[in-house]
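User: Could you check the structure of this?
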Amino acid sequence: MKFISLCWNLIDESGHNAAYSRSFTQALAILGHENLVLVPKHCTAERKLGSWYYIFPRRKNNTIYSKIKYLINLTISLFEFKLETSNNIIFLESFTTIQFIITIIYTLLKNSNVKNLCLLFRNNNDINEFNIIIYKVVFRIFNSISPKKLCLYTDSDTLKIFFEEKFNLPFCVLPIPHTDNILCSEFFEKKSNSIIMWWPGAPRPEKGLQIINKISHKVNNLSNIKLYLSEKTQGVIFSNQVIATSDPMSEIDYVNMLRKSDFILIPYDQKVYSLATSGIFVEAIFSGKIPLVSKDTWMASELIKNNLPELIFDWTNLNFLDNLNDILSNSYIINKLKIMNLNYRNFHNISSYSIVLNKSLMESSR
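Assistant: Sure, the predicted structure tokens are below.
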């Protein structure tokens, strides 16, 4: 059986799109399936597994003309890709509403060649009241033409509840799979006197850029703290205690930085991440590091489930930065993190992902 992964937005190693695609291919290999990965022509992400096809056009700017031209070329490039067998499964993750509609049309027109259409909703950022109507209408049309072909997924219980309520369709929760290269170090075995804090990823407002800027000024007066930020923050954030990391980072550099850190800063926007998951948060737990997160987010709900409210902040008061050593030496917090680490390792992995995916596909064909 062949999976066709439509990775419209996989450009480079930034974010988790590339890591997710590689982990997805590994999960399919466990099940004995092949993964054909369709990516943009200018994609520079590291190709390790599966068969990659560089077919999608580059989006040049945000003018109306450019957007229309891009969507036309995107549609043409997809329809020119030939499905050689009748046992294909279309897999789509990280997509916009327009990309969703294009995929639906493609699947319906290639109906005899497609066994299932799998859609993974990793966040609800593109879901508003108008788009909900579009999705519901399109789903209804699709299911009337191709019953039992649609498989809907998300990666958290909170998103599952949200989407099932909005679409009135069943969703399956998949584990977050891009964790296999993250080995759990000895918890908090420090190799230096400095406390290392890291804010992974590009400096985006919804990921807490303004808060990180405040933290950078605060740590200027705290010589024992080293703050690691993307090199793209240079010219935006100024601090003597800031150390720049490459952006995007290679997978090896990313994992090494994760192992090196003591605290992972996740001051994400509460509206954007109230339901959406964070791969960085999962990786922090995996690697035995302490995540510091915003209240009223999915990350906060996960910490509350594991009795770790001490790691949730509203970021208005940064005095906690004076007491980071107290958190590092708090055996109560560390022991609870160890239990959370074990629970995460049992669920969020490639093997678990393949089992859940296979079970859902078997149930859809009944």
